[in-house]
Amino acid sequence: MQPSLACPTWRIGLPVHCRDLQPDYRMWREAGPVQRVEFPDGLRVWAVTRYDDVLALLRADGFTRDWSAAPCPAYGYGVRRHGEDYFAARPSNLFNSDGSEHQRLLRLVAPFFSRRRIDGLQPFIDSVVHDVVGQLPGCQATDLVADFAVPIPLRVIGRLIGIRDGLLPTLADHLHVISGWVDPESEPWRRSMLALHRLTLRIMREPRPDQEQGLTTVLLKALADRGAISRPEISSMIKVLLATGYETTAALLANGALAMIRNPAVRQQLAEGRDIEVCLAELLRWQPPSPWGQVRIALRDLTFAGVHIKAGDLVYPLIAAANRDPARFTEPDCLVPGRREAPHLSFGRGRRRCLGTPLALAVATAALPTLARRLPTVHLSVPAEQLDWHGLMHVRMLQRLPVRRDAPGLADAAGHP
Ligand code: HEM
């Protein structure tokens, strides 16, 4: 990947599903702390590449997440030209709002992600993990994305939001299309967006009957009792939580399973249940499920890390580059399950830190060690270079992870995120 000679802009070429993007991220980080990048759909952004600068951006004032408040939104952002616009669309949700509006919405759902609430959900998480892992074929081939990484977080988030089990597979299919890098003008994209919207309305009409305290039911009650949230905002909240919470966690499980297969130290640590928190932190650092974090829109002309940024420009924390900054991590490209260095930035930081962190960690803590114990000798059934990846910015995960137990040593070459 080369910058154009006319203007120093790095272009991300298609296809991205079979490419290791880390060499690109490394090149940009080495080129400077803030780089101009153009996405496959033409969206131009600034990528902040180094650990300390990403940390500063995550905490910075002078930016907004509310594109409608931006002085002159760049490149038609928010008018359904780019995949990114999905997150910008009205009505208000946790991604596209700021200040008191964001606080109002956050207050309504934050209790669902408290440590106490997640502890209460733990028996359900454990039962889903045992059910899913228990159904993995003992000695035959299986796809650990479809049969392990996807169903566990899907069922957990379905329970938390209050979604009937029957709707979950269709929801997952549409979310997968939306999180892939497809043209928002394309038929598949539009079809899935429309289907997601209809499914969300159905979730609101028919929440799970066994869950009086489910998130959807509680939000509908807040609408009826106090008008604390509007009906379109509830629908938007459900979409955002689904879009942000399920495939990211699936990515952590799938990437963790691949790391476990290829790295005996990871496998052993998980199987022994030793320092799981440290091991998960390293997996998250090495291969962040959400490599780009959320957009920040400059509210005025400003200088960030020595680079002039115009009002309305889009700025991204490139978490995947920051997590491998050699200024912070020794041998940053190595996966070291016992590593105790600077904390990774994969859940963001500060006021806009990931709301679902305790839930994602609870799911991974239950799922990955159970998998390591259930399949102690599992191997890839294709060479790792042939593994395809899905998504680019908000989720980057394996498309499939075909494994079997009977043919050791088939594929130990480097897989890539
Ligand atoms: C391994 C799994 C996950 C990863 C790696 C992840 C990562 C992230 C990242 C990087 C951000 C943006 C931080 C920023 O740019 O400032 C974020 C925000 C967010 N995440 Fe997660 N996430 C995960 C799971 C979840 C789950 C399970 C949920 C909920 C069901 C969730 C809900 C959210 C929400 C609501 C925000 C927006 C917070 C705000 O702006 O106030 N995430 N997440």
Low-confidence stretches: 2-7, 407-417
How would you characterize the largest beta sheet?
6 strands, mixed
CATH architecture: Orthogonal Bundle
Shape: globular
> What is the CATH class designation?
Mainly Alpha
Number of strands: 13
Can you give the mean pLDDT? 89
Number of domains in the coordinates? Answer: 1
Sketch the topology as an H/E string, one letter per element: EHEEHEHHHEHHHHHHHHEEEEHHEEEE
CATH superfamily: Cytochrome P450
Portion of residues in beta strands equals 5-15%
> Helical proportion?
40-55%
Strand order in the sheet with the most strands? 1-2-3-9-6-4
CATH fold-level topology: Cytochrome p450
Q: List all distinct small molecules, including ions and cofactors, that are bound in this structure.
A: protoporphyrin IX containing FE
Distance between the termini: 16 Å
Radius of gyration, whole Å: 21 Å
| Structural class by helix and strand composition | alpha+beta
Number of helices: 15
